Amino acid sequence: MRTGGVFVMPAIEIRNVKKRYKALQALKGVSFTVEDGEFFGLLGPNGAGKTTLISILAGLARADEGSIAVRGHDVVADYRNARRNLGVVPQELVFDPFFTVRETLRIQSGYFGLRNNDAWIDEVMANLDLTEKADVNMRALSGGMKRRVLVAQALVHRPPVIVLDEPTAGVDVELRQTLWKFIARLNREGHTIVLTTHYLEEAEQLCDRIAMLRRGEMVALERTSTLLQRFAGTQLFLRFSEGVLPGELRALEVDPSNVNARQHLLRLASYDDVERILALCRANGCKLDEMEVRKADLEDVFVQVMNGPEVVEGLA
Ligand code: ATP
Predict the structure, then answer these.
(1) pLDDT reported for residue 201
(2) Which residues have CB under 8 Å from 110's CB, separation 6+?
(3) Whose CA is nearest to atom 16 of ligand 1?
């Protein structure tokens, strides 16, 4: 990327990465670039290959084919420099239970050759509301607190590129807010952030750009606002007290796999569609319990992309 005539190294460059586990092709040739300073979302349903990709990025697994570079450093050939530039918050909580929070963070600093790192460790702990727990043993912490330590551990060496693999899975609202405030600040200060999450409203709010993976393949890569415009648009929510959706409206369902016969979310090409849809419903003996016109969100986009890239047009 060029900014003001200066070439800026991409934060992460992923080229044609393939990974197979026995019969399962977990990644089928994934390529994309995360630019320096971006807040980037990597989304996909369970088993799409997100964690596999992050493991290869972090040097914990090897790709069968393809390459990944972190700020120009190949994660295999130049592992040490790639690792130095990267902070990864893994999905799983794995700790040595005998150390306190502060000791855990000091040991992690030691891996990166950082000795006098206490000022930054204190700052990270304060920002993650961990200060009170600094001298508590890891085994005595709740799951949410352990997750905060995982985040702190990934940040001890002030990595320019931070990857968070579902950091808010199973954590309370308070931690989510604390965490996002801190991560957003780091992003404003120039850190690149890559996030995987199943909370799509978080991704919608935070991410500049979003990649979607489905069964090891990239199915979308767009600016968040473009994705929302392209796929989402406006929708009509209907709940029937009597009758079923006329067959000719089935094609408009946002989620084609919807099995609830009473509730339907239909894609609108324009507001004129509302009148035509309601007239059709009336003609077919449907009675409405509830009706609402909604702006689609990232969750709707996700459902549409995962059900196939084609966007069904509005009423003919
Ligand atoms: P989730 O949202 O559930 O975390 P994910 O997108 O991170 O999913 P991965 O964990 O990368 O998906 O898994 C991709 C596929 O590879 C899955 O089908 C998974 O079962 C399989 N897989 C992952 N790790 C291994 C392994 N070590 N051995 C065999 N299969 C694996």
Answers:
(1) 87
(2) none
(3) 26
